[in-house]
Design a protein that fits this description.
Elements: E1 3-6, E2 21-24, E3 27-33, H1 48-65, E4 73-80, H2 86-94, E5 104-109, E6 119-126
Parallel strand pairs: 4-5
Antiparallel strand pairs: 1-2, 2-3, 3-6, 4-6
Helix pairs in contact: 1-2
Length: 131
């Protein structure tokens, strides 16, 4: 099995011993992203909508680095510190997917997330076959 590490400046560098994403056996596994700015390291935490949009932009950058987009995502995991913010997160998240092409997903409430943020999202995408 060949394993390729995906690294891009379009998403924040890892803040621990992990990769932004790993490509293996036709699948792209993207590590959980938080609303951290890749360019200057600031957190975008004005509100849950701002946080979620920044997280999705970070995920988009990683997908693009692998030659993919949101239509290739087959599974997402959303971690929230407050399930009361689910509707707002869902609205922002849903805007990144075409109607009828949303991936499988779970949303889990957790006690805390890195750097005190309120949302973290990870994804798995299916790579495109070259013919």
């Amino acid at each position: 099995m060949e394993k390729n590490i995906i690294i891009t400046s379009a998403a924040p560098a890892p803040i621990g011993p992990y990769s932004q994403a790993v490509l293996a056996n036709g699948m792209l596994y993207i590590s959980g992203q938080i609303p951290l700015d890749a360019q200057d390291g600031t957190l975008h935490t004005a509100d849950i909508i701002t946080e979620t949009d920044k997280v999705m932009q970070n995920l988009k950058g990683i997908l693009q680095a692998a030659g993919l987009d949101f239509s290739d995502v087959v599974k997402s995991s959303i971690f929230l510190t407050d399930m009361g913010q689910f509707s707002a997160v869902n609205e922002v998240y849903g805007a990144y997917f075409e109607s009828g092409n949303a991936p499988a997903r779970e949303t889990i409430q957790v006690a805390a997330l890195p750097r005190g943020v309120h949302v973290e999202i990870s994804m798995i995408a299916l790579t495109r076959t070259q013919e």
